[in-house]
Amino acid sequence: MTLQQLQYLVTVAECGNITEAAEKLFLSQPSLSAAIHNLEKEMGVTAFVRSNKGVAVTREGEELLSYARMLLEQADNMRDHFGSGDKRAPKFSVSCQHYSFAVNAFVDLIKEFDADGYSFTIRETQTGEIIEDISNGKSEIGIIYLSEHNEEVIGKLIRNNNLIYEEIYHAAPHVFLCRNHPLADRESITMEDLQPYPYLVYEQGNNNSFYFSEEFVSMLDFPKNIQVRDRATLFNLVIGLNGFTVSSGVIDSKLNGSNIIAKPLEINKSMRIGTLKKKNTVLSRYGSFYMEALKNHLSIV
Fold first, then answer.
1. Does one domain contain both 286 and 138?
2. Contacts of 53 (CB under 8 A, 6+ apart)
3. In DSSP terms, which residues pair with 121 in a beta bridge?
């Protein structure tokens, strides 16, 4: 097994077609097919199912790809740390729930490593996809929250995917609502206070259960519920419908607008926000900087 073979494997999976992958790698199709076949034979797996339409990744192929991406990423990190010669273009990806501090830390990262060329990605996405992204190497760091309600289910997924969770912030639940909301003048808000108003939550796709919910309070606790996919839509509905959502209380007026405010929710619960990374991996310099930037933003909340 070589790093080159692993790169071939990943490229074929991304292209979904041997011919296209061969062109991208500047190889002949027979040479690429032979390299993939030799890797499959050595690992004792069938990574792809071939057809006239291209290739499809098998279940054991997905597992092999996860390890391949991890090893290639670690090799890149090692070259970046110890290598000499031409400076490598910065590359980093993070997958997270919808937190303003995650975006602020991402901005700090880009400013710190600004260059003539770079490839940075931030994915505000569903909880299940965050775990998948870190597991398969699509992102280096993930950001989610755990609580007494979801930690058994989410914690099991984290362990089964060989991930590590590190808590970085302990938050008291807050209600996000608009500045002109009828409850905006309250010092704190109760669950009963919120009953007449629409509850805005982030849709979780096939994992649309309370365990995967980004919000701390279950939709079952309120009669009016609206599910959305992105932050802008959620806050527009919070303003337009006198709706609300429940989250950490960490808010940034520059990102979310001055019309959105946070009020403490009167509930004897807490949420623990933390990061995910692949077990037995060393963070890149970009990942390490991003982690420190996250902690810096949360330390001044």
1. yes
2. none
3. 93
